[in-house]
Design goal:
Elements: H1 6-26, H2 32-48, E1 63-66, H3 72-81, H4 88-92, H5 122-141, E2 161-165, H6 167-171, H7 173-184, E3 190-196, E4 199-200, E5 203-204, H8 213-219, E6 223-228, H9 232-244, E7 249-254, H10 277-286, H11 299-329, H12 331-342, E8 363-364, H13 365-377, E9 383-387, H14 391-394, E10 413-415, H15 420-433, E11 437-443, H16 451-460, E12 465-469, H17 487-492, E13 498-500, H18 505-517, E14 523-526, E15 531-532, E16 551-554, E17 563-567, H19 572-583, H20 586-589, E18 597-601, H21 605-609, H22 613-619, E19 627-630, H23 639-642, E20 647-649, H24 660-666, H25 671-686
Parallel strand pairs: 1-2, 2-3, 3-7, 6-7, 9-10, 9-11, 11-12, 12-14, 13-14, 17-18, 17-19, 19-20
Antiparallel strand pairs: 4-5, 8-15, 16-18
Helix pairs in contact: 1-2, 1-3, 1-11, 2-3, 2-9, 5-7, 5-15, 7-15, 11-12, 13-18, 15-16, 19-25
């Protein structure tokens, strides 16, 4: 240890002992990581991080992500000490019901927590997304200097993204994907400190993780430095060098997990368990710390940390003054900035939304979606996104809006490469940064590759839009590897994720409107590869019904229906054809009108569930128990809507490789089969 003043020591040990005491009191948690990283976190937070504890939402603050979220007490200690609204009392109730100090950092309840972290690797990718958003917004909103005209330029977006990442973070594939992209994009504002303590849960990293991490990141085209995690000047110098380098930076800081614990330092025992009362006493003694009281914060240390409040105020005030000059010169840009940061859609964003008519011929919903995206792109400059190498298939390219790259950070099309998981984590980071409305696309079957990030988007209620195309066996010849079957149910199972599977081009337009206006939580649009007829809305109900999740698309002729056909997406038009067939079956119904079938288009369970009971009962009257759901996916979940008396035409296996028309026939998604199944159901009901 070199060049630490007594005050530095005091401050660092305050962070350590707060973590030790909180974990001990909670009888659960991870003391080792905060003990090991307290020194480098102290340097970062007191000498570099430009933030305003009094206003954690100051838009141009540096971002800090604790990717190794299990070390949450490190972050809670720093937030409390630097003056965020996180009283010491909250640290005393670490991990308890209703506290703002949950086991892993959660974005939302705790001021200053930039991202929910815990699943390793996610925070790493989130930071990359934040740095991308910073670069895009800087390109879009900053005004470059014009020396000839004496204009010094304006930089209203100009900040760093820092993270502390761990062995576990670097082992996870998502971090590799994100690091590869970050290096390629030369995200120079990204500065990650790697807690190189060489311990994970099962023991030494010698067990599993022996590659040369530095050379690996150099190969990713990162700027890599090595530092002693306890040499404060060395850490500071490394951060300065990282700031100056145009590449993303990794500072590999050699640390010791459980630093200061005489019997547990450098062992996996300090991971995931309290030190134990005796070891707490010994650790404090070893650190020169009084054993009582617990949660001790020496006045001198607190005063040192609390300088962050005044510095933060000054930074924000200085930025605010600069912003006002900017706003005076560029009022339109300033207004656009305010709306973007508030997440509001500008007036008129939807003026060019296309209308699709049945006479224009059949259209895949992915194609309709591409047309919608391109119609709104010019009116919504903060709508940015792309694909995991499938833009030509997913139809998500924004024509004429350029590609985002190191040399063109104002480009709006993102080539995420074949990196679905990183795309998911990066999209989350972009929303967490604020100011942009991001979307990402891939085939529905590959949503599995990004599911952990989707889950976190849902948990954080981030408004990300996913465009998942090739949404069923309807993709045809590519076969079962590419045919999503369980993904529909699996996505619907994620709380706060709104899944929408539109039936035709007109519903796709409404789906995009819903997706963009839905600011709380992610939305997944499930779209077809194959062409679908554009339904004739002159005789059918308006596609606006999509916004309510399910609606009566075609009422049964002549009153109370005998049976309800409930379908989603590409199966809806087949259900309509089945309705006609049933109407021709006069024999069973013993009426001239034949069997009366109502067709319900049900693009979104989630939206439907938000409707009042009266509406839901109007669409699916409880007294009509003969219900048949038709969806080219696993039937799981549908029984909720069809009930005990109902049935589901779904897919129990994995699909097959064949032309889609053949598959449709073989799997029973034909008007004939639907009508037969409905009739059988009605006949059974009669006996
Ligand atoms: C995706 C994921 N897998 C597993 C875990 C469980 N887990 C928590 S911490 C950890 C490993 C800890 O090692 P490291 O990242 O080096 O942290 P340190 O031991 O330094 O605290 C694991 C496997 C997790 N949080 N996330």
């Amino acid at each position: 240890m070199t060049q630490q003043t007594e005050l530095d020591q005091l401050c660092i040990n305050t962070i350590r002992t707060l973590a030790v005491d909180a974990v001990q009191k909670a009888r659960s948690g991870h003391p080792g990581m905060p003990m090991g990283t307290a020194a480098m976190a102290y340097v970062l937070w007191t000498r570099f991080l430009q933030h305003n504890p009094v206003n954690p939402a100051w838009p141009d603050r540096d971002r800090f992500v604790l990717s190794a979220g299990h070390g949450s007490m490190l972050l809670y200690g720093l937030l409390h000490l630097t003056g965020y609204d996180l009283p010491l009392e909250e640290l005393r109730i670490f991990r308890q019901w209703g506290s703002r100090t949950p086991g892993h950092p959660e974005h939302g309840p705790t001021p200053g927590v930039e991202a929910t972290t815990g699943p390793l690797g996610q925070g790493f990718a989130n930071g990359v997304g934040m740095a991308i958003a910073e670069a895009y917004l800087a390109a879009h909103f900053n005004v470059p200097p014009e020396p000839a005209e004496g204009c010094p330029g304006h930089k209203i977006v100009d900040h760093y993204v820092y993270a502390i990442v761990s062995d576990g973070d670097l082992m996870e594939g998502v971090a590799s994907e994100a690091a590869s992209l970050a290096g390629h994009l030369r995200l120079g504002k990204l500065i990650y400190m790697y807690d190189d303590n060489r311990i994970t849960i099962e023991g030494s990293t010698e067990l599993t993780f022996t590659e040369d991490r530095g050379r690996r990141f150099e190969a990713y085209r990162w700027h890599v430095q090595h530092a002693d995690g306890y040499d404060l000047e060395g850490i500071a110098a490394a951060i300065r060098a990282a700031q100056a380098d145009p590449r993303p930076s990794l500072i590999i800081a050699r640390t010791h997990i459980g630093y200061g614990s005489p019997n547990k330092q450098d062992t996996a025992e300090v991971h995931g368990a309290p030190l134990g009362e005796e070891e707490v006493r010994l650790t404090k003694e070893n650190l020169g710390w009084p054993s009582e009281p617990s949660f001790l914060i020496p006045d001198q240390a607190l005063a040192d940390f609390q300088q962050a409040v005044e510095r933060g105020r000054a930074w924000e005030a200085e930025w605010q003054a600069r912003f006002e000059t900017y706003a005076a010169e560029y009022p339109n840009l300033a207004e656009e900035w305010r709306m973007a940061m508030a997440g509001d859609l500008p007036a008129g964003w939807d003026v060019d939304l296309p209308t699709f008519r049945s006479e224009d011929g059949p259209l895949a919903t992915r194609v309709a979606s591409g047309k919608v995206l391109n119609a709104i792109a010019s009116h919504l400059p903060t709508l940015i996104g792309g694909s995991a190498d499938l833009a030509p298939s997913c139809k998500t390219y924004l024509n004429g809006h350029g590609d985002f790259s190191a040399d063109n950070p104002g480009g709006r099309n993102f080539h995420f490469g074949v990196r679905e998981h990183a795309m998911g984590g990066i999209l989350n980071g972009m929303v967490l940064h604020g100011g942009v409305i991001p979307f990402g696309s891939t085939f529905l079957v590959f949503s599995d590759y990004m599911r952990p990030s989707i889950r976190l988007a849902a948990m954080m209620e981030l408004p990300v839009v996913y465009v998942f195309t090739h949404d069923s066996i309807g993709i045809g010849e590519d076969g079962p590897t590419h045919q999503p079957v369980e993904q529909l149910a699996a996505l619907r199972a994620i709380p706060h994720l709104t899944v929408i599977r539109p039936a035709d081009a007109a519903e796709t337009v409404v789906a995009w409107r819903v997706a963009l206006e839905h600011r709380k939580g992610p939305v997944a649009l499930l779209l077809t590869r194959q062409k679908l007829p554009v339904l004739d809305r002159a005789v059918l109900a308006s596609a606006d019904g999509l916004a309510r999740g399910a609606y009566v698309l075609a009422e049964a002729d002549g009153g109370r229906p005998d049976v309800i056909l409930i379908a989603t997406g590409s199966e809806v038009h087949v259900a309509l054809a089945a309705q006609e067939r049933l109407a021709a079956c006069t024999e069973l119904s013993r009426s001239e009108q034949g069997v009366k079938a109502r067709v319900v288009s049900m693009p979104s369970w989630k939206l439907f569930e938000r409707q009042p009971q009266s509406y839901r009962d109007a669409v699916l009257p409880p007294e009509v128990t003969a219900r048949l759901a038709i969806e080219a996916g696993v039937p799981q979940g549908w029984y909720r809507y069809v009930g005990d008396g109902g049935e589901v035409i779904g897919i129990e296996g994995f699909g097959a490789s064949a032309p889609y028309e053949v598959l449709w026939e073989k799997y029973g998604f034909t008007a004939e089969n639907i009508a037969t199944r409905a009739l059988e159901m009605l006949e059974r009901g009669e006996t």
